């Protein structure tokens, strides 16, 4: 792995790279993992393949926005708690700003069906395919792990519920433990998580404490901003499966109660599809509709706070577990299952919502070749996808 930098230089490096990803990472959480893999693992080698896969598996098990938590985790392992915060800011701020602007001046704009948006969805197909192929070569090298990945793929495609992924990962951990309990792995990753277990315990305590305390404060005070914070915090705390799953929760919290109209909610959903970065930033749009730019920032802080508390709280214990010889077999099974889960998510919704005609598949093949064989920078691939999508819409 690449030698770590320290202090301001490390934070500046994280901010620049995560901001570039935040401006170009279209396609949803699985696509984000592909962009992260290409930038942080393939190009910069900040983590090895096993550590990245372990981190992805951990974040799949935690409630909240998995791709954002992976980005925070990479920042933490690069430069501590501040590194995680800076990584989050760089990746998230572009879409937060864009969605607040949409809320304030462009609520009536229909962007969901724009040609360039379709082109960016096709870019996501190429990026995710590339990431899955690279990770599968490393994490499913034998027939046993290929079989675990296949079972995970079948299960997550046939039973698409919020808790299926967690159940599949737990089952894969048991299978991995049984299949590889005698396995001796000489390739031990050298990863340092610069967070103490005491700090981690405080973060986990705060996560559960706020979950209990905020609804009580809401009832006692009847203050609007506390009610807003509580609704967004609970939505960010209780969701497994990423941004699309949080949308029904947010709609239940705000539309029936009269905070905003159904039309405004759906307009914001269209805008959220048009911007890069995590779909959880949809909260910035909702907050801005309800209480201006300050409401947008408050909503963003509230919905992402659980992700911070959980990843800060879990990382130190995760690192200790992954080094335990008894746990390594379980992690081998989990990592194989993650490949199956990623292939499942690659098919639906990424492939099914992006490849609608033969010309789409042909364009995806061109973009894949640009990324994999011609080794062009991802921003060129993204720009080509946007232009190509606009041209395809004219045909």
TrEMBL record:
<keyword id="KW-0812">Transmembrane</keyword>
<feature type="transmembrane region" description="Helical">
    <location>
        <begin position="330"/>
        <end position="349"/>
    </location>
</feature>
<feature type="transmembrane region" description="Helical">
    <location>
        <begin position="293"/>
        <end position="318"/>
    </location>
</feature>
<keyword id="KW-1003">Cell membrane</keyword>
<comment type="similarity">
    <text>Belongs to the chromate ion transporter (CHR) (TC 2.A.51) family.</text>
</comment>
<dbReference type="Pfam" id="PF02417">
    <property type="entry name" value="Chromate_transp"/>
</dbReference>
<dbReference type="GO" id="GO:0005886">
    <property type="term" value="C:plasma membrane"/>
</dbReference>
<keyword id="KW-0472">Membrane</keyword>
<feature type="transmembrane region" description="Helical">
    <location>
        <begin position="199"/>
        <end position="220"/>
    </location>
</feature>
<feature type="transmembrane region" description="Helical">
    <location>
        <begin position="148"/>
        <end position="179"/>
    </location>
</feature>
<dbReference type="GO" id="GO:0015109">
    <property type="term" value="F:chromate transmembrane transporter activity"/>
</dbReference>
<protein>
    <submittedName>
        <fullName>Chromate transporter</fullName>
    </submittedName>
</protein>
<dbReference type="InterPro" id="IPR014047">
    <property type="entry name" value="Chr_Tranpt_l_chain"/>
</dbReference>
<dbReference type="InterPro" id="IPR003370">
    <property type="entry name" value="Chromate_transpt"/>
</dbReference>
<feature type="transmembrane region" description="Helical">
    <location>
        <begin position="81"/>
        <end position="109"/>
    </location>
</feature>
<keyword id="KW-1133">Transmembrane helix</keyword>
<feature type="transmembrane region" description="Helical">
    <location>
        <begin position="115"/>
        <end position="136"/>
    </location>
</feature>
